[in-house]
């Protein structure tokens, strides 16, 4: 018995490895999101109408969300057949190399239309890697969790989202303050992309020290492995896949409205400077980070789905007051708006990974949970900044709030119709 216990993952190692990996992944993902609003419209697209350049840049931002289900199928296949550890390492490398490559790309004034094409290719690579990363990190935590602490363990990879956002936004703010606009647009914007290489090496070192999760080892010992996990999920668990996808819909719509759309609209229409609004977003993200562990504690006591239902109902209500809160003048208007919206994001994001993971049996859990989460990214996030920008320009901010409220209503319906949890 002692020989079998020796290779088990220590709780601190599991939690840190799941957290550091998603922090790196989301750091990489968010530096692109920030650059898609602030940098890429100016450097990677033809000079002309700034609004059109921003919309084109947001279209490349959306591309990663279409790559993520491909990553879910690819990495999920190996994660369910070969193991969580090796697959997580491969996903991290894919994401990291794509991000570093963006920092090396020539701009439009040097190679013309090839610049946005290469940018789109690297963005696709980012999405591919993140499509395999999230599910594996959640399973690493959840499948090592002791009884009664699944949501608590499962929230650690979720914390990577606010931490990665905080680091990426803070780095952009520091760069613009330290070197000025001219140097920032000449070379400074590349620093976050190139600097992510150091974080990737740290993440690889942590993950290479892990062993397989007990649940995966047990499933392999009982010969539960399926030949084609993707086909098994679609054929045997369509209800779980559909319910999981729409259960995450409101989460995605809310987050990308509060970050990418809000940054773009506030700096172009509401008179905020880039630095000021990024700083306000960083304060708002603190509320996001604070409510993730709180919601996980509640989920372990009351049930993850119940907490998700309550949080989603509050998101629907927030959508109805979205426009007057966001349009309120001065810092006093934007900060409560960001704190409330991102705080609600944390309440729904904390238990989400655990709830999605336990919609699927162990043998197809990597593929199923990843696919549901990343299909939700396509439906809820890929075009959210684009759609919201169009709605706000054509019909006003109230329509953006209605868009969010509609997404929350669909999520409530999905949670009501979702299948029972699988141990």
TrEMBL record:
Pfam short name (any one):
MFS_1
Name the InterPro entries on file.
MFS (IPR011701), MFS_dom (IPR020846), MFS_trans_sf (IPR036259)
One GO cellular component this record assigns the protein to is: plasma membrane
Q: Name one GO molecular function term.
A: transmembrane transporter activity
CDD domains, sorted: MFS_ShiA_like
Membrane-spanning intervals of the chain? 12-33, 53-75, 87-105, 117-142, 163-187, 193-210, 240-265, 277-295, 307-328, 334-359, 371-391, 397-416
Q: Domain of life of the organism in this record?
A: Bacteria
What this protein is called in its record is Metabolite-proton symporter
Arranged from A to Z, the UniProt key words for this protein are: Cell membrane, Membrane, Transmembrane, Transmembrane helix, Transport
Q: Which organism is it from?
A: Fulvimonas soli
Membrane topology field: Multi-pass membrane protein
UniProt xrefs under PANTHER family: INNER MEMBRANE METABOLITE TRANSPORT PROTEIN YHJE, SHIKIMATE TRANSPORTER
State where the protein is found. Cell membrane
Q: Which residues form the Major facilitator superfamily (MFS) profile domain?
A: 14-423
